[in-house]
Amino acid sequence: METKIKVGVSSCLLGNRVRYDGGHKRDRYVTDILADYFQFIPVCPEVECGLPVPRETMHLSGDPDKPRLVTTKSGLDHTEKMRQFCYNKIKTLEKEKLCAFIFKKDSPSSGLHRVKVYGKSGQAQKNGRGLFAAAVVDHFPLLPVEEEGRLHDAKLRENFIERIYCYHRWLSFKGNHPDYKKLIQFHSQHKLQLMAHSPKHLSAMGKLVASGKDLAGDNLLEQYQLYLMEAMALKSTTKKNINVLYHIMGHFKKYLTGDEKAELIETIENYSRSIIPLVVPLTLINHYVRKYDLSYLQNQSYLEPHPAELMLRNHV
Ligand code: SF4
Asked: Going by CA atoms, what residue is nearest to atom 8 of ligand 1?
C-alpha cells in the first residue's frame, strides 16, 4: 500500500478534546475527506507545552511582531513555556517530513492569519499569528500551510492541496539522488502546471535550469525549490488555465478530427464563460491524450495534479 502523505494538523480539528473548555473543533472536511489521503500528525501546542484541560483562556498581547501569550483573566504569561515547546517540537517535526500543516484559525497558539493581538488600551487588532504557527512557518518556509476555515473556499482549497502534492513530489525527487538530468525531467513534467500558476516563474525557472550546469548542485536545487513553491502559492485563474488549455491543444490539434477540434474549443469557451468547471475540458483532453498516445502530455503533472476523487476542479 502506498504510504500516505504526512500533514501536521491542530489536534482539536481532528476531534480531540484538547480545547481550553474540554471541547474540540472537529472539522468534517479534514476528518471525513482529507483523512483518506493524508496521515495526520496532530499537535496541540497548549496541551503539549504542559497546560491542563480545561484551562484559562489566553490571548496574544503587545507587539504584533513579537506578541506575548497571556491568560485573559489572571494575566499569567506563558510565552517562554510556549517558545521552549516550539523549539523542541520543531526538531521532532523535522523528522516527520511533513508536506503541509493545517492550523486552527483564531487561536493565539495555532492561528495562522489575522489572530487578535491586544494592545495596552485593551483594544485588539487582527494582525497577529499564533506562536506555534509562527514557529512552523519560520522554520519550514516552503511548507504549504493553511487554516481549516479557508479550506471551505473551493479555490483556496484547490490551491492548498495542489501545493501539498507538488511539494510531496518535490521532496520525493530530492530524496532520490537527484542529478541534473532528473531536474530537467522534473521541470519538464511540471511546465504546464507552473504555467497555470505563474508564467513569470516558469520562464525564470526555465532559465535557471538551462544555466544549471554552471551552478553547484545543491545551490541549483535550493533556488529551484524556492521558485517552485513561490509559483505554486500563486493561485491559478480561469484566464491562466485557458492559456494552458489552448497551449495543450496546440500539441495535438493536427491529430484531431474537425468535430473533435470543434468540441474541444466549445468546451474551453464554456469553461471561460464559467458555464462548466475546469474538470470538463480536462477530461476531454485526457481522453485525446490517451487516444493519440501523446507521451509528453501524458507525463504532465497539470493533467493529474492530485487525486480526481477529491473533486478539486469541479467548481465554477
Ligand atoms: S487551537 Fe491549537 S492550541 Fe488550541 S486546542 Fe486546538 S490545537 Fe490546541
From this structure: 44
